[in-house]
Amino acid sequence: MHGYRIKTATTADLDGARAVMLDAVYRDFGTGYVPHWHADIIDPESFYVAPPRHTLLVAVDERDGTVAATAALDARGPAHPPNPRWLAERYPSGRTAQLRRVYVRPEHRRRGLARQLVAGLLEFAREDGDYRAVYLHTYPHSPGAMNLWANLGKAVFHEREEVPGDGSGVVHFEIPFTRAPC
Asked: Which of 68, 80, 100, 118 could form a disulfide with 72 if both were Cys (CB 3.0 to 4.6 A apart)?
């Protein structure tokens, strides 16, 4: 098996990172690019590279230098609306490290890349010192997502189970960051 290098994204990595992210929203989610939801994908530099408390990590395939996986963190908590007020209050912006865009190309899955990237994001959040919680949301149909997040944290709100008539199935997780994940 060949290797990967996990690193903080540079400007040179952004086109590859953007391609991984766009492929995921088209292939895995079936939504395609939706400007309101995916502005960070088109401009990852403004969202994740430039702000000091944000980061974008990539896994680079050492065989050919291509980006195989992405993971981002920012200081924006879940917004209300569309999320319930209690969720936005529990994970306020500025104090919450939100994990985003943890995507692995299909041909690179099952190699531990998502876990390694998440470990890097959690280390970034710990080093920042001002984050009090790590939050994310995911979809049950996202390949491998529910297994990964259930092993690393706990679901705090499952919309399909708790919101009558909501078919989205979004699941919100909190990940402890006092220790590194396995």
From this structure: 100
